Amino acid sequence: MAGGYDQVIFDLDGVVYLIDKPIPGAVEAVETLRGRGTAVAYATNNASRRAAEVAALLTGMGVPAEPAEVLNSAGAAAALLAGKLPAGSPVLVVGADALRDEVTEAGLTPVQTLEDEPVAVVQGYGPDVGWRILAEAVLAVRGGALWVATNTDRTLPSPRGPLPGNGSLVAVLRTALDREPDVVVGKPEPALFTTAAAQAGARRPLVVGDRLDTDIQGAVTAGLDSLLVLTGVSSPADLLAAELHRRPAFVAADLSGLFRPANEASVPLDAPEADGWRVTRDGHKATLDGAGDPVVALRLLCAATWDGVPLTGLEPASDAARELLNSWGL
User: Fold this and answer.
1) For the chain, how big is the Rg over CA atoms in Å?
2) Residues 6 or more apart from 35 whose CB is under 8 A from it?
3) Residue 13 annotated in active site
4) Which of the following is catalytic: 6, 13, 101, 213?
C-alpha cells in the first residue's frame, strides 16, 4: 500500500502510541518508510504538547521524528489567533502549558481571568483543566471574546480505554453558553493535512488514523486517501455504520497493513466471499458465514452496510461469525 504514496501522515494517539508507549509495530513502520525514502509527518489534535516535545517523545520511543514533521492543533490555533488579533492581545488560555507557550510565541499575551479583559478564548486539552478556568472562559465568551477550540475529540485513547478529550471539555462551555465555538482548528478540518503535504512537497499523501470523525473525515475533506487502523478509538462497528464523509479507502488491524498489497485492505470488499468468509445478502439482511481474518470479514460486511443493510440486519451463520459479531458489540 505505502508504495503508492509519496508521504504518510500519521495521527499519533491510538496510531503510533497510547499515552507514552509505542503501539506494537509503529517503530518498525516508520523506519521502513524512511528507509524507502517516503516522507513522514505527524498530525495531532492533542494540544497538550508542543511540536518539539512531541518529536522528543517519539524519538525517545524509538520513532524518529523532527519538530518540523509534527503539526499540532495548539500551534495552528495560536497562528490563527495571531492572524486575527493585534500583537500583544490578551487571550484566555484553557489547556496545558504547551498551548500557553504557543500563544506567547505567536506574539499574544496569555491570561487566566476575565479581569484581564481577554479578547479571545483558546481551548485545548489539558489534564489539569478544572472548573475555575472553565468558568472564566464562559464569562469571557459571554462578554464577546472570540472562542477558538483546538479540536473537539470527545475522547482520548489510553491503555485503560477511552478517556475524556478536549471535546468533552468544550461540551462544558457549549452547555453553559448554548452555542458552538467560533472556530475549531484541528481535524476534521483539513488544514493540518494540507500543511503537512505542502511542507514536504508531497503530491500523493496517505493519511493514517484511528478516528473516523477526525482523521478520516479530515482526509476525505482534504481529498486524500486514508487508512483506518483498529488500534485506537473507532471500532469495527463504527466503520460499518460510517457515513459517506467518514469512509476510509483502506482498513487494517494495525500499521503492518501499510506494507501489504493495497487490494488486501481496500474497503469495501465488494465480493460474495474471501479468505474463508462468505456474506449472503437478502434484502435488508446480510449473513456472515465461515471463518478467517476478522478484517476481511469487516471489509465484506462494509459492502453490505454501506449499501443499506442496517447493523441490526447482520446475522451470523457459523460459530466464528457469531463470536466475531459479538466481539464487535453486534
Assistant:
1) 21
2) none
3) yes
4) 13
Picking from 147, 243, 231, 245, the residue whose alpha carbon sits closest to that of residue 187 is 245
Strands (E), 88-247: 90-94, 109-111, 120-123, 146-149, 155-156, 163-164, 183-184, 205-209, 225-229
Catalytic residue among 11, 210, 215, 225: 11
**At 157, is the pLDDT very low, low, confident or very high (cuts 50, 70, 90)?**
confident
* pLDDT score recorded for residue 156: 86
pTM of the model: 0.87
> In residues, how long is the chain?
330
**How far apart, in whole angstroms, are the C-alpha atoms of residue 103 and residue 196?**
21
How far is the CA of 28 from the CAs of 16, 45, 231, 295, in angstroms? 11, 24, 16, 21
Q: Is 289 a catalytic residue?
A: no
Question: Could you give all domains of the chain from N- to C-terminal order, each with its CATH number?
Answer: 2-45+188-264 (3.40.50.1000), 74-184 (3.40.50.1000), 273-327 (no CATH)
